[in-house]
Amino acid sequence: MDAHARRSAALNDRAPRKEAKLILYWMQHSQRAHGNPALERAAYWANQCGLPLLVLFVVDPGYPDANIRHYTFMLEGLKETIAAVEKRGAAFSLRLGSPPEVAVKVAREAAVVVTDRGYLRHLVEWRRTLARECDCLVEMVEGDAIVPVEEASGKQETAARTFRPRVHRALPAFLDLPQTVRLKHEAKDLGSKDDQHLTDVTAFAEGLGCDMSVPAVTQIRGGISEARKHLKAFLQDDFPYYGDKRLDIINRHVSVMSPYLHFGQISPLEIYHAVQDVKGHDESRASYVEEMLVRRELAINFVHYSPEYDSYKALPVWARETLEHHAGDPRDRTFTRRQLEEGKTDDPYWNAAMREMRVTGYLHNALRMYWGKRIIAYTNTPKTAYATALYLNNKYFLDGRDANSYANVGWLFGLHDRGWPERNVFGKVRTMTASGLERKFDIDACVKWANAL
User: Fold this and answer.
1) Residue 377 — φ and ψ, nearest 5°?
2) Which residues form the Photolyase/cryptochrome alpha/beta domain (predicted)?
């Protein structure tokens, strides 16, 4: 109970409303009905107050950088979540509009409002608005980081080597999965004329009027059932090889959990325990925990403590200085953003990576590194490269537009890294070349596969 209490924070100093119709859980980041501490906290309040529980999710058709690809994957997961919430005896309200405005409106009938935690600038502001405008208690519960961000570190960490011991030291206190709370009061008559019905995901997504230029993916679908299916297959077939072969871009021993984590469709703590439960394969276990705990939550640390996380200014001083010093270095060739986006460069490896991104919304980490590093070489200034990398990342990747996106793009330019031997264009920032791909992989086979997508 102490660990779960440390995941929760009151966002205002108001008391539960005495004359109320319901307890409200405003679901936004943790889009799941299982392993969701915010949902369980709301269920606790429902039982304490003797009220039914209403779960609210607001689809914002104008969400920053979102397109039909992102909405489709999210809605596939939400359809499953709605059914699971209602099966527990709670009501689910799916609405369209400005999330904080709708949440404040619905909260007028609530004794207590519970919400999950978001880390990006607009998500933080949404919760501040809710807490300020509500005249009842508003609580926030963190369930999409294994270790709550302030518990891991009270400052912005400069590298994995400084963050790693801190997050591992805090980890044991936060390993318990939330207990499922049985609701004592079934939700009835909580519907509204503003509620939307999610029967046909494709029709719903297309009706949003959102950016249709990036089609939905067909290789994977959203939802906790799909996430668990992928996780089970990974642990059975690929986990034994993850430790020493996870960088293989041909025989890919990867879990593809990042899209599901991005939309909060599966708990990172559930994944952590599933990995721990596999017998043997200590090297694979250590490598996976390093990626999911240390690297992923270092990214959360970055956006939480760095106000300019989505700006070139957020890069370390040494990285900006060395890149600017070499900004005038001659490039072998440069390409426009449109040429890059369409994969029309003279580099078949880069074009294949961009094609995989466009078609599948995913890219193996080793290829992501090559893809991002070459953008620095293919554009005329480091600032142009940064803006281009972030634009393409957020437009095409299913897991784009989150803490990992901003930290990973920053890493291409030296964030959370150290200086390397000085080179043309890159200066002291780490680089990656075509010859490096050729030495390590059968890159031609990868190109052939990508071009057939």
Assistant:
1) -80, -25
2) 21-149
**259 close to 31: Cβ distance less than 8 angstroms:** no
Please give the domain boundaries of the chain with CATH numbers for all domains: 1-144 (3.40.50.620), 224-305 (1.25.40.80), 312-451 (1.10.579.10)
List strands edge to edge, sheet with 137-141. 8-10, 137-141, 110-116, 22-26, 53-59, 91-96
Q: Give the tokens for residue 110.
A: 């609530």
What is the rounded distance in angstroms from the CA atom of residue 347 to the CA atom of residue 350? 5
Q: Would you say 227 and 346 are in contact if contact means Cβ atoms under 8 Å apart? A: no
Whether 131 and 11 have beta carbons less than 8 Å apart is answered as yes
pLDDT digit string, tens, across residues 39-94: 999 999 999 999 999 999 999 999 999 999 999 999 999 999 999 999 999 999 99
Question: What span, in angstroms and rounded, lies between the C-alpha atoms of 48 and 246?
Answer: 47
Q: In this structure, what token pair is assigned to residue 399?
A: 């897991």
For 239-272, give one letter per residue: b (16+ CB within 10 A) or e.
bbbbbeebbbbeebbbbbbbbbbbbbbbbbbbbb
Burial of 276 (0-12, 13-18, 19+ CB in 10 A): exposed
Give dist(CA 323, CA 425) in Å, integer: 7
Helix/strand/coil for 397 = coil
Buried b (16+ CB within 10 A) or exposed e, 398-413: bbbbbbbbbbbbbbbb
Which distant-in-sequence residues (6+ apart) come within 8 Å of 272 by Cβ?
Answer: 146, 175, 289, 292, 293
Give pTM, 2 decimals: 0.97
Q: Tell me which residue of 367, 160, 171, 385 sits closest to 268, measured CA to CA.
A: 171
